[in-house]
Amino acid sequence: MVPVLLFPLLFLGPAVAQETQDGLYSLTYYSIGISRPNEGFPSFQATGYLNDQAFLHYDSESEKAEPLGPWKHVKGMVDWEEVSKTQKARGDFFLKNLKDIMDLYKDTGNHTMQEKYGCKIRNNNYCGAFWTIAYDGQDYIKFDTEIPAWIPLQPKALNTKVKWETEGSVWRAKSSLEEECTQKLQKYLQYSRTFLDRQDPPSVSVTSHGDLGHIRILRCLAYNFYPRPISVYWTQAGNVVETESWGEGSLSENGTYQAWVVIKIPSSDRGPYSCHVQHSSLAQPLAVLWNERQ
Ligand SMILES: *[C@@H]1O[C@H](CO)[C@@H](O)[C@H](O)[C@H]1NC(C)=O
Ligand SMILES: *[C@@H]1O[C@H](CO)[C@@H](O)[C@H](O)[C@H]1NC(C)=O
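Above: the input record for the complex with 2-acetamido-2-deoxy-beta-D-glucopyranose. Below: its predicted structure, written as tokens.
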């Protein structure tokens, strides 16, 4: 008999764990500009991330850059006055660019521009960068550091490419990504490794719901773990059981993840079934047993 195993193992984002162990770190800024924000809402906001953790937020209402999460207690990593000033200048420039793009489309009213900007280092050396701009949720233009050049991602973006390149932004953009961003990331890492290299082992809970007549639902939840990659699956008598559904939570307030895996079994089945959890924080996989008495 050949068992049908659609999702025999669940590996949620395995790349990231490998990467942190290889010494891969990233600094990313997500920014958004809105041409007509609602009353009291900022027209420009930026959030800075080290790997998957937000550490900085700026908005044009407060005109202040502020630390987030555990970085509230870090001294000396960021000159907050200076970053507030540079973010304010960046916000003004960002909204001017949004206006220019709206003019190209002859758009009026409420429109948005979003940006993802950042760099990566491996073993403390630059190993890649990204800079993409979207208009009304659609990719508009991106920067290629190799050529180097702005690459239009929509026909109208060719105008923007020509304008920015004529203004001489290409070498500035390249050095901003490859040098300034990288140096900043190297500096920030000296203050942040304890948060980024953290290994919080998962807690595991197993629940059963028998309210579907002849079907029983077994749910295995792993929670309070970091980093994100994890593998969760059910077995019966040593064989992997096909997963019915699964999900994962986003990074919680206190900087941990959760993930769950659900299987369906006949109500008459007394088990036992085992939920297995593998995570980089664990020397050995965890196994939690379920049988009908639970
Ligand atoms: C403009 O769009 C943004 C983002 O979609 C939204 O948050 C904001 O409320 C809108 N402004 C108005 C005046 O509707
Ligand atoms: C995270 O928060 C939950 C409750 O929201 C708590 O049970 C848990 O212990 C916290 N985890 C860590 C690692 O602080």
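Notes for the reader.
The domain at 20-196 is CATH 3.30.500.10 (Murine Class I Major Histocompatibility Complex, H2-DB; Chain A, domain 1).
The two ends are 30 Å apart (CA to CA).
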